[in-house]
Amino acid sequence: MANGIEPISRAAHATLPDFVIRHFQRSDAEYNHRQLYRILKDGILRAALPAGSKLPPSREMAQTLGIARNTVVQVYEQLALEGLVQAGVGRGTYVAEVAPAFEDQPPPTPVQRRGTPLSRRGRAIVGGARASPLQWGAFAPGVPELRMFPGAVWSRLHAQAWRELAAPRLSYATGAGHPALREAIAEHLQGTRGVACSAEQILITSGAQQALHLIAQLLADPGDTVWLEDPGYWGARSVFRMAGLQLQPIALDGEGLAPTPQQLQVPPRLMFVSPSHQYPTGVLMGHGRRRQLLDYAASHRVWIVEDDYDSEFRFASRPLPALQGLDERGRVIYLGTFSKTMFPSLRLAYLVLPRDLTESFARALNELFREGQTMQQMVLAQFMRQGHYVNHIRRMRLVYGERRRVLIDEITQRLGGAVSVLGGDAGLHLVLGLPPGTDDETIARQAIKQGVLTRPLSLYSLRPDSAPGLVLGYGAVTEEEIRHSFGLLSGVIEASL
Predict the structure, then answer these.
(1) What is the rounded CA–CA span in Å between residue 493 and residue 447?
(2) Would you call 38 helix, strand, or coil by DSSP?
(3) Structure confidence at residue 148 (pLDDT)
(4) Helix (H) and strand (E) counts for the chain?
(5) 145 contacts 399 by C-beta, under 8 angstroms
(6) What is the pLDDT of residues 194-212, one digit of tens each?
(7) What DSSP string runs through 209-250?
(8) pTM for the full model?
């Protein structure tokens, strides 16, 4: 006897479908509920309990199975809610007329599929993925020093924002971003990057990738061409490819993007460039080349996307003004991010748009993404307004400069003239150029086995004849870690040369 309820008797078995008795096993109350519900539902859907069949009263069912009556009542109510049974006071509970299950329908004509169930676009995304699951340690590219971020200041501002937060701020975000943050960004860009803009031209996005999605969707159609620096940022490449654009890799020279006369004959819809610190090679685009690109874009109505991802950290000279500041005809869209100057998981970036695009981009942002991160935007606005942002950049510029110096010294001492250093004047990474014919992908795989992270330069290129090299990030690596890890890496490199 369980809880005063008589155990199941042989006589009672005959009043219930055999499959209920056969499969039901008493356990804890929660499992009894799930089990009885599953058995009865399966019986109804498979017609083991045909339409019109009367279920035993809840009390009788409970006594037969040795469970609480409330459990049975709850199961019957759930089945009635789903339309599987019909119950009425004084009438009992009957199995309802239920449409046959899908598996009982005539099978459709089979469609032959080979391999993965992904779409062609899905296969392209997965097959061409370049994002690494390893995002910390020597020498992971693009990672800033997060251990020195002023977390106490950020936490205090965050708590203050919560105290001052009005309820509507927690609702869906609308517009182009928090007004105070847009104003702070515009002021910062005017003073440090030579960007000609007002707060009304700033659009806040959840990271650079989302910004690129908006650009691709709003300014280009499937089949349009985009010029990409080669080697260049794989993230932009992936976004534009998934938007159905034709990717045109443009080789670099000593001044950056260098289209051939033949390529100039077929203007693209978009150009994607990083003129202040080309990613990943670090090439700096001179004033003459900048003017050429701006004139070409204006003549052929080409949109230029300027990626200014880490130009705040320049060591040999002051940061160069942005290309956008030279644009007098509204063809440049300036893309900035806080991933390098703050921390990557903040997921905040921004676009500086020509005035005739601002309203359309704001409406599309809300239509496609419903993004907001209003709290983070409010905190960041105060962080910038109170001078913490500029102070943090100044402090980290000194830290990164010293780490860069140590890494270059290690390269020179251990490998000498066998390799070259590219792009070491700015940013959080440099490129270690390898002799022609070197297999940089094999070196990177062997380095991981030694606990050292690096990315082969060839992964950043669409051209098969790209120069080999290794992209080495030093932002999140202490001087001691640099010396130890590069000692391991140099051993792998020497064995491959």
Answers:
(1) 9
(2) helix
(3) 94
(4) 17, 15
(5) yes
(6) 999 999 999 999 999 999 9
(7) HHHHHHHHHHH--TT-EEEEEES--HHHHHHHHHTTPEEEEE
(8) 0.79
